[in-house]
Design a protein that fits this description.
The protein is built from three helices and six strands. The N and C termini lie far apart (43 Å). The chain has helices at residues 3-20, 81-101, 108-124; strands at 26-30, 34-41, 45-50, 53-58, 64-65, 75-78. It has two domains: 1-79; 80-126, no CATH class. A hairpin with a 3-residue loop joins strand 1 (26-30) and strand 2 (34-41). It is of the alpha+beta class and 131 residues long.
Length: 131
């Protein structure tokens, strides 16, 4: 199969997938590392809810409509376990950053508990590895 035939086949599969999306299905937002849920569709758009806000995507291409100038690079793709894990890691890093940024609002007990949990994780790591 030539490069162009392969591209055409992938485009055809993507079109079928986009056409099959219905309300309630989860999708991944490529470029943003987010998971969203199809809320509804119109003849030309697929509306996805992401973190309590709606975003609109072209029903034929899956590319985001409107938003910031870089949003045109955001498109919906099938959700895989790897993409779900990446989205969760992004949320966790954001949450952790917002907690530690406000460390003055944490109690001494909360800080101690976080550090104890971290120390336990570090101690359970194999030599030179990851827990």
């Amino acid at each position: 199969m030539s490069f162009f035939e392969r591209q055409e086949a992938e485009a055809s599969e993507r079109t079928k997938w986009l056409d099959s999306l219905v309300a309630g299905q989860e999708v991944s937002l490529a470029h943003d590392a987010e998971v969203g849920k199809v809320v509804r569709r119109t003849a030309t758009q697929i509306i996805i809810e992401v973190r309590s806000s709606e975003r609109r995507f072209n029903a034929k291409t899956g590319c985001q409509i409107g938003g910031a100038s870089f949003s045109r690079y955001t498109r919906i793709v099938p959700l895989t376990d790897q993409l779900r894990a990446e989205a969760r890691a992004k949320r966790n890093r954001h949450r952790f950053g917002s907690i530690t940024y406000r460390s003055t609002s944490l109690t001494d007990a909360q800080i101690a508990a976080m550090l104890d949990a971290y120390d336990q994780l570090e101690a359970s790591k194999p030599e030179g590895g990851v827990a």
